[in-house]
């Protein structure tokens, strides 16, 4: 039976989100049905709800930081049973046989189906986590530890994996000097995770009032990126920089802070391009500019297990769904400490 689900949707790029009803597909043999309890609010939700990437499909139900309880499983499901905690991140399907899928990097599969603003294999629009339930193929459902605060786990499904994956890919280890740019949802997870991996963490922020929090979260040093003298003091000193900024900005000021052979990895996806970086900054120290996209399902589970082991969750502001438009406006002013999470009981009324 198709199941009616209540949700909040963006109907147009320039209108506030408002209530919406949709139907989730019947639970198939390999499907898990989840009652959504909490959903994190990612800056990507704003970019897409407002069509800043130019690919939006309306009506759109955003949300890809989903946690909840399993309420039904198909008869071929092996890993989940009714009552289990479960999580869903940015992806809900992929081809399963291309080289990327075979290497557990489903996010790079050419037919990867994203949790919302995407079309599934049957050609139907996908709807995300600002809703009371979801039905997902078991291969894309994550196991969640019972020992952590569930609402604060939700942001790990995107902000957590998007920062964990590049830190692992560039092999960040004890003693490495790592810069994190921007203390928002992704950035604050980057600080916590790099710190837990043993790195010396330098946080770059445009918001001086976040300095004390950054230190509490695990930063060893805080640099106000608008202060040229403070920036110059870091010149040539970092092994790796993870840049989470959601707006176009001058990349050169950060490239210059890398050591020889250092890498800056961009994960922020602004609506318009950064100014092209200077060649001199790259060639004289053989520096690299790179990018990274979320992380595969296997690595997402590894990250969730790492966080359970190290007692890492997100610092959150819990909001009712009725406050979602206000939350978007606050995020755009870099005013969130440090991730909004929707309490989905507010939707059930
Ligand atoms: P967020 O919570 O809004 O954080 C972004 C932070 O960037 C802000 O808190 C602010 O930190 C800094 N910032 C904002 N505007 C700035 C500006 N004009 N100049 C310099 N710094 C600025 O956003 P988020 O949810 O962490 O997402 C960040 C970006 O990553 C978004 O573009 C999102 O779409 C993207 N994303 C990418 C992936 C991926 O797979 N690659 C996954 C998820 C999200 P300070 O106040 O500390 O300066
Ligand atoms: Zn996200």
Automatic annotation (TrEMBL):
<keyword id="KW-0479">Metal-binding</keyword>
<dbReference type="InterPro" id="IPR013149">
    <property type="entry name" value="ADH-like_C"/>
</dbReference>
<dbReference type="InterPro" id="IPR029752">
    <property type="entry name" value="D-isomer_DH_CS1"/>
</dbReference>
<dbReference type="InterPro" id="IPR011032">
    <property type="entry name" value="GroES-like_sf"/>
</dbReference>
<keyword id="KW-0560">Oxidoreductase</keyword>
<dbReference type="GO" id="GO:0008270">
    <property type="term" value="F:zinc ion binding"/>
</dbReference>
<dbReference type="InterPro" id="IPR020843">
    <property type="entry name" value="ER"/>
</dbReference>
<dbReference type="InterPro" id="IPR002328">
    <property type="entry name" value="ADH_Zn_CS"/>
</dbReference>
<feature type="domain" description="Enoyl reductase (ER)">
    <location>
        <begin position="12"/>
        <end position="342"/>
    </location>
</feature>
<dbReference type="Pfam" id="PF08240">
    <property type="entry name" value="ADH_N"/>
</dbReference>
<dbReference type="InterPro" id="IPR013154">
    <property type="entry name" value="ADH-like_N"/>
</dbReference>
<keyword id="KW-0862">Zinc</keyword>
<dbReference type="Pfam" id="PF00107">
    <property type="entry name" value="ADH_zinc_N"/>
</dbReference>
<dbReference type="InterPro" id="IPR047109">
    <property type="entry name" value="CAD-like"/>
</dbReference>
<dbReference type="GO" id="GO:0008106">
    <property type="term" value="F:alcohol dehydrogenase (NADP+) activity"/>
</dbReference>
<dbReference type="InterPro" id="IPR036291">
    <property type="entry name" value="NAD(P)-bd_dom_sf"/>
</dbReference>
<protein>
    <submittedName>
        <fullName>Aldehyde reductase YahK</fullName>
        <ecNumber>1.1.1.2</ecNumber>
    </submittedName>
</protein>
């Amino acid at each position: 039976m198709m199941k009616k689900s209540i949700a909040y949707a963006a109907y147009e790029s320039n209108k506030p989100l408002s209530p919406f009803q949709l139907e989730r597909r019947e639970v198939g043999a390999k499907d898990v049905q989840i009652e959504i309890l909490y959903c994190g609010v990612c800056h990507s939700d704003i970019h897409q709800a407002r069509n800043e990437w130019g690919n939006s499909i309306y009506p759109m139900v955003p949300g890809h930081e989903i946690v909840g309880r399993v309420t039904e499983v198909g008869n071929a499901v092996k890993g989940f049973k009714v009552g289990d905690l479960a999580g869903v991140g940015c992806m809900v399907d992929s081809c399963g046989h291309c080289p990327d899928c075979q290497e557990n990097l489903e996010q790079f599969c050419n037919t990867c189906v994203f949790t919302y603003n995407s079309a599934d294999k049957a050609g139907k629009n996908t709807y995300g986590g600002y809703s009371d339930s979801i039905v997902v193929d078991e291969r894309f459902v994550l196991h969640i530890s019972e020992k952590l605060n569930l609402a604060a786990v939700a942001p790990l499904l995107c902000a957590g994996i998007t920062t964990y994956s590049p830190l692992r890919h560039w092999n960040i280890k004890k003693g490495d000097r790592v810069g994190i740019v921007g203390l928002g949802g992704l950035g604050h997870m980057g600080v916590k995770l790099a710190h837990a991996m043993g790195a010396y963490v330098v946080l770059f922020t445009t918001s001086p009032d976040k300095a004390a929090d950054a230190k509490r979260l695990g930063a060893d040093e805080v640099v106000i990126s608008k202060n040229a003298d403070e920036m110059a003091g870091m010149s040539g000193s970092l092994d790796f920089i993870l840049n989470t900024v959601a707006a176009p900005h001058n990349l050169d000021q950060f490239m210059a802070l890398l050591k020889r052979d250092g890498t800056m990895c961009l994960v922020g996806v602004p609506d318009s391009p950064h100014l092209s970086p200077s060649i001199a900054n790259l060639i004289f120290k053989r520096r690299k500019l790179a990018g990274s996209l979320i992380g595969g399902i296997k690595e997402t589970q590894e990250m969730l297990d790492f966080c359970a082991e190290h007692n890492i969750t997100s610092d959150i502001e819990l909001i009712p769904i009725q406050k979602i438009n206000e939350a978007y406006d606050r995020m755009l002013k870099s005013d969130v400490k440090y991730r909004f999470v929707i309490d989905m009981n507010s939707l059930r009324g």
